[in-house]
Design brief:
Subcellular location: Golgi apparatus membrane
Membrane topology: Single-pass type II membrane protein
Strand order of the largest sheet: 4-5-6-3-9-13-14
Largest sheet: 7 strands, mixed
Shape: globular
InterPro entries: TBL (IPR029962), TBL_C (IPR026057), TBL_N (IPR025846)
Helix content: 10-25%
Protein name: Trichome birefringence-like N-terminal domain-containing protein
Order of helices and strands: HHEEHEHEEEEEHEEEEHEHEHH
Pfam families: PC-Esterase, PMR5N
């Protein structure tokens, strides 16, 4: 006992401890543990314990939420111009039609707490090699596709292999060197629809029948990107099983049919489209893109002098809460996405662009999608997006989503 106390507390203690420290350098130094324990004898005795436990498992890194963030200045934008890309539709060619302020091009989306990589055309084409990507929906689906074509044009251009004439809105574009094909299917309601003869802008919507035009191509598609919201504000007669059941903004016999809201028809059409893909045993990936804002008109509605003339993005604290039909459409999209994901049997993801795009009232064509003397139904366009412009971030997000998951 006396010897033990001399070793621990006498002059030789320093030598003993030095040896322990040196030994630990050759074993597992970060996990050296010194502890005092008490025995069960009458007189307490003390021991020096050297332990090297297994290192703890590293905590998983938090997943990057690329859809929540802010726009930050970026002197390196844009990635292309109207002179370097031949795929920009006139309606979105803001630089060609003389938009004087180009500061709206010098911003980049920065998610909170993480980094969204800039679109890499080489990486995208490698990832999508031997695959097909279908944009299904409205004119914003076309806006998105043309942004992608422009970003890819830095390294490759597709061959138009569409089987229809040039006036047909459906397109097939093929990148031969990568065996990568892009489809564009015009289907603004996703379900079967007809415009009434003699009543332009008024539609019949068959809410329980998916549009066969795009659904028939599903077996050839690896990634289907759905885009549908804005058109559900149109005047519509609603049908189920071939029978009229209601309408949106149209005259009806109120004793037999129900006048309903755009939210009802929008959600029903989304549900029908997703269920049709599941029933067809779609083996690809479904990407549901959320609402692109309709509320950037200021000073009036789209047909009453409203315009969007801002020259910089909103900050996160400057956007107002979503209201009205925008909120209803967004809620419908998220609810139907969750239901489809929970049902299983189909790979479905959401691309939630809404928060980012609500901060960009400066990114629309406004009056710079045509010449001043041209007559247009929507003279000031605050729905679509200039190319180049904020819409390019949709492809940053798309590449991130596809890279982050197996396709």
């Amino acid at each position: 006992m006396v010897l033990c106390f001399k070793l621990l507390f006498g002059p030789t203690a320093a030598v003993f401890l030095s040896a322990v420290v040196i030994l630990s350098c050759f074993t597992n130094a970060p996990y050296l543990q010194l502890s005092l324990t008490t025995t069960t004898t009458n007189a307490p005795s003390h021991r020096l314990v050297v332990a090297a436990p297994s290192p703890p498992a590293p905590a998983p890194l938090p997943k990057c939420d690329i859809f929540w963030g802010e726009w930050v200045p970026d002197p390196d934008s844009p990635a292309y111009t109207n002179e370097t890309c031949a795929f920009i539709q006139d309606h979105q060619n803001c630089m060609f039609y003389g938009r004087p302020d180009l500061g709206f091009l010098k911003w980049r989306w920065k998610p909170h707490g993480c980094h969204l990589p800039r679109f890499d055309p080489h990486a995208f084409l490698r990832l999508l090699s031997n695959r097909t990507l279908a944009f299904v929906g409205d004119s914003l689906a076309r806006n998105h596709m043309q942004s992608l074509l422009c970003l890819l044009s830095k390294v490759a251009s597709p061959k138009d292999v569409s089987v229809t004439d040039k006036t047909d809105p459906n397109k097939i574009l093929h990148y031969e060197a990568h065996n990568f094909t892009i489809y564009l299917f015009w289907s603004p309601f996703l379900v079967r629809s007809e415009e009434l003869a003699g009543r332009p802008g008024v539609f019949r919507l068959h809410l329980d029948e998916p549009d066969a035009g795009w659904l028939a191509a599903a077996p050839r598609v690896d990634i289907a990107l759905l885009s549908a919201a804005n058109w559900f504000t149109r005047q519509s007669y609603l049908y189920r099983r071939g029978r009229l059941v209601g309408g949106v903004y149209v005259p009806l016999n109120s004793t037999t049919h129900r006048l309903t809201t755009p939210r009802h028809s929008h959600r029903a059409a989304l549900r029908t489209a997703l269920r049709a893909l599941a029933a067809a045993r779609f083996r690809g990936k479904v990407v549901m893109r959320t609402l692109s804002p309709m509320s950037h008109f200021e000073g009036g509605a789209y047909n009453d002098g409203g315009d969007c003339r801002r020259t910089r993005p909103f900050g996160a604290n400057e956007t107002k809460p979503m209201r009205g039909v925008e909120r209803e459409f967004y809620t419908s999209q998220m609810k139907e996405f969750r239901k489809a994901a929970a049902a299983g049997g189909m790979d479905v993801v959401v691309m939630d662009v809404t928060a980012a795009m609500r901060m960009r009232p400066d990114g629309h064509p406004s009056r710079y999608g045509h010449w001043p003397d041209e007559k247009r139904a929507m003279y000031n366009d605050c729905i679509h997006w200039c190319l180049p412009g904020p819409v390019d971030v949709w492809n940053d997000m798309l590449l991130h989503l596809l890279s982050d998951q197996s396709i």
